[in-house]
Amino acid sequence: MKTSVRLLSILLTVVLVFSMFAVTVSAEGEVANVTIKTDVDTVIAGDVVTVTVNVANNYYATSMRWPVLFSNTFFELVEGSVKATDELDALGGSAKCNETPDNTIYTTTYSSTDYTGVLVQWTAAVSATGIAPYNQADGMDCFTFQLKAKTDINVGDSGSIVIPEDYPRFYNYILTDTEEPFSPDKVVKCETLVHNFEGATVECVTPEILPVEDSGVVLDKTKNYIKGVAIGTVDNLDAYVRASVGEISITPAKENKMGTGSKVSLTHNGITYETYTLIIAGDVNGDAYVDYMDLMLVDWYEAYGVTFSGVQKIAADLNGDGKVNANDKIALDAYLNFEYEIDQVTGTVIDL
Ligand SMILES: [Ca+2]
Ligand SMILES: [Ca+2]
Fold it and tell me: Which residues have CB atoms below 5 A from the ion given as ligand 1?
């Protein structure tokens, strides 16, 4: 009898201790979302990409360790570029960035055959007043480094940057008692934390200007004309064209107006790859609008031999017969009288 009471009490103690322990370390619903971001998602060979590791968590982490792997046929690390961000430094603690970690960063899913990686780590500062954990529900950029797209990659190739989900050595130390002051004796290892990882992919592309889908714009790749832009689009062309890589720059035809004759160029790393000329049918003077000024110019072209550039002639040829004459003047006049519409893709009038 005595023995069984004792056994029972031991059992109860064990259950009690276990349940206390279980309460302490189970952290249900506590999630870290670790997101890899790149400053660009398209490159040409030789480009440098800045990678950022953002960590959003809803618990008080006292340490973190992330191996960040990248496709080694596509990328190479820019040496000396791995560092903690100023925001992470501002939290105190100790950040470590290892550019040449050992093989333990690789997993069965992500092997060193295809990947190379860096290892970034952080542990919270501990002082006489307590411990300063990481709790950033909205996420914070913690680490950054640069990758160079290798010079022998080809258009269509892509490289990925990932944190392997099957990495067995993530730190899982958290504070479960969130009453301040935080103290090191409240730190526990928690195996139930959920880590969600979002990687990034970068693709090698041809530098070119592309139409924005469903914008109605048409790029004439032979003559380098842009057509299909609405009359009066004076602010920007973002709704119509985009760069596969690099930046689009615009030289307006007239003052800051993006009318007929405006030049649209694609530039990347100081090299201009393509230049298109914008044509707004009916806009002969290049101010992006179609009005009596344009009608007057067509009149002068016909009557007084005013010279037109090639694109001005195309903009003025509203019946599409390849010539600029009285018929176009009639068409333009009819447009201005709301009898015709202008199809900016064909560059000709439509009888309403
Ligand atoms: Ca005009
Ligand atoms: Ca004509």
Answer: 283, 285, 287, 289, 294
